[in-house]
Structures are given as C-alpha cells and as structure tokens.
Amino acid sequence: MPLTDIEVRTVKTSGKPRKLPDGNGLYLYVSVTGGKSWRLDYKYVGKRKTLTFGTYPALSIAEARRRRDEAKRKLAEGLDPSLAKRREKLAAMSAAGNTFEVIADEFIAKLRRDKRAEPTVEKNTWMLKVLASKLLPYPITQISAKDVLDVLTNIERSGRVESALATRSAIGRVFRYAIATARAESDPTSALRGALQRHHPALTTRKELGGLMRAIHGYEGWPSLVAALKIQALCFARPGETRSMEWSELNFDTAIWTIPAAKTKMRREHHVPLSQQALEILAYMKEVFGDKPQVFPSMMSGKTILSENSMNSALRRMGVGISEHTAHGFRSSASSILNESGLYSPDAIESQLAHLDVRAVRRIYNRATYWEERVRMMQWWADLLDDERTRSRWLNDPDT
Predict the structure, then answer these.
(1) Architecture of 206-391 per CATH?
(2) 5-95: which CATH architecture?
(3) Catalytic residues
C-alpha cells in the first residue's frame, strides 16, 4: 500500500533504521535519530545501488514519486540515475558560477585582447555593467528574452532609445560569446529584433533647423558640450564619432577630419571635409583643451569624453522634445535638406554620410570621386546653417 502523508508525518524512530515502502522501489528511510529521507534501491549493470532523492518534509510524497518515475525512465533507457543526478548537480553548480557578470567580464577582457578601441571597450563596459546591471547576478542560462526586454524597456522609457538598441546588441554579443565557450545554447536577444523603437527624430526644414541652431549658439553649458553640438550639426557624423574625436584625427592645414576605421560603423576609415565654421570652432577648442588628447572632454571627473547621452540631454534642456530631434537626427536633417536642394549628387551625400549602399556602383567607396563635391557641399551646408540661424527665430515662437 502506498504511504499516506499522515503515516509519513507521524512515523517514529524505533531505535534502529527503518524502511517504509511506498511502492515500485520507493521507500521512506527513517534513521536512528528520526531523520526521514526518500530513497530508491535499484540495480545497474548487476550492481546494487541506492539513490537518495531528498528529505521529508522538504520533499513531498508526490515529488518523491515523480523523481522515482524519472529515475525508472532513465534506467529503462540504459542510464544510471545516480550518475545522471551527479551530472545535473555539476551542471547546476556550473550554471550558478557562470553568471552574466562573469561572462560579461570575460567578453570585455576579450575586447581588450583583440585590441579594440578604448572608447568601444568603455561603451560596452558601461552598457553591460551599468545599463544591464539587473542581469549581472543571474546564471546566463536562466536569463530569458523577457528578462532582457525588461532591461531594455526601462532604458527606452528614460528616453535613451539609441542606448537601448546598442545595449541589446551588447547583451547579444555576450550571449554569443557564452555559446562559443559552451556555457549557453541560445541568444534570447535574437527574439527581440524589432521590439524596440528604431528612429532618429529630426527637424528637416530650414526654418526649424535655423531655430535649433539659434538655441545651440545661445546655450550656456559646458564649452566642450556646446562645441560638440555645433560640430555635430556642421559635420553630421555619427554622435559617437563626434564625441570621441581626437586631435590626432584632425589636419588643420588640409581641413580634413579622418575618422579611424575602428570608430566607424562600417569599419572603414572615413574622411570629413571641414568647413571654415568647423575649423573656427575646433581652433577655439584647441586653445581651451589642446592639452588633452580628446577634442571634447567631459566635465565629469574620471570621464575622458562626453557621455553618450550628453548631447541629447542638452537638447532636452533647450526645450527640444525627444520626438522632435536628437543628436543623430542631424544626419537626417542634412540628408533631407541636401537632397532637396538638388545641388549635390545623391552619391556624394551618401558618401558623406558614410553609408554603404547594396548596389555595386555605390559599394565602391572612392574618396577621390566625390571629394571635391563634398568639400563644396560641406561649406554650403555650414553657410546655410549660419544663414538660417541669423534670420530664424526659435521654432516654437508663435510669430514665426
């Protein structure tokens, strides 16, 4: 007869060990001191063995029976349930030790071994150890797509859409590293593509852009941040490339900013013609911060360059809503207005934006082909920004 919970709960010690059978090999072992544990005696390759499932009442009768049935299934498959239990225990211990933090630290160390640019290493460290800090203590095999989405949604709700997207990619890289080192079997971030917003709000009319430039020129903030915003508008590079600009990348004699391949999205060196206005701003920065390797140093102690959200935060303080314009939005602004002008070829504009078109004719990035046109275009763009700034009033002025 199977045991009842009352029988198990009330059984007393008799001064010697006792075995109370429950059925199909499962029994309750009662020790001399009164301790109770669920056990199963079985034979494997002719050898008698005993498997202990757990103690009562921590392990209920129902759970003990489930584990007995599971052990019987393993035996039927030719497996030793005791060995399987030890392997599962070792796997659980390994998983507990392979937390997201442990593997993220290894991944960051690998970036350094691979000689990735320090800004890249620092950005990945910030995303993985700060923005994704909620994931750090969990075994990587126990992190679900929903866990990652919760982290990303919190970032997105704070207005840092680009940071959320970049963090999803960084988390995915950690999971793929874990897969490559046999500590995970899947990447939950692959199920989250398209789950976040992906747009760069931008002002795309001359009047709106003129008002924005008036606001930037009138903004009384950290000089490095104000100058970075101006250069972002004039050069419309990717914000990370602007923030990490170094003096070694600038040639004032030829008026060229050379962005190293390691810093670009396409991993290809990119050349930016510098307008007269851009050169004047950079010359001023040279006087103020020329003793530092970075052109736009942070005002925060211990930080080498402006933070990822510094320019967007400044725009918010100017009253520019997150749905109106972002630092990245200057690229859309320039693309829209330059294309609408009809003065410059689409290829020259795309080349200046460092885009890679899938068509063969645009896949050939020949700097010389569009260089002279791009030089003229960048000066025209800088003059346009000045003209619109001096004759425009702030975009929210009801009288404009």
Answers:
(1) Orthogonal Bundle (1.10)
(2) 2-Layer Sandwich (3.30)
(3) 238, 265, 328, 331, 355, 365
DSSP H or E segment with residue 220: none
Domain ranges of the chain: 5-95, 100-192, 206-391
- Interior CA angle at 332 toward 327 and 333, to 5°? 85
Q: What share of the chain is helix, strand, coil (3-state, %, to 5)?
A: 55, 10, 35
| Residue carrying the six token digits 């056990």 | 39
Taking the C-alpha atoms of residue 248 and residue 377, their distance in angstroms, rounded to an integer, is: 24
User: Residues 217-267: pLDDT tens digits?
Assistant: 999 889 999 999 999 999 999 999 999 999 999 999 999 999 998 888 777
Class of domain 100-192: mainly alpha
Q: Do 251 and 262 contact (CB within 8 A), yes or no?
A: no
Torsion of CA 276, 277, 283, 287, to 10 degrees: 160
CA–CA gap between residue 20 and residue 27 (Å, rounded): 5
C-beta of residue 240 within 8 angstroms of C-beta of residue 270: no
User: pLDDT for 56-112, tens place per residue?
Assistant: 999 999 999 999 999 988 888 888 888 777 776 655 555 557 899 999 999 999 999
Structure tokens at 44: 């494997």
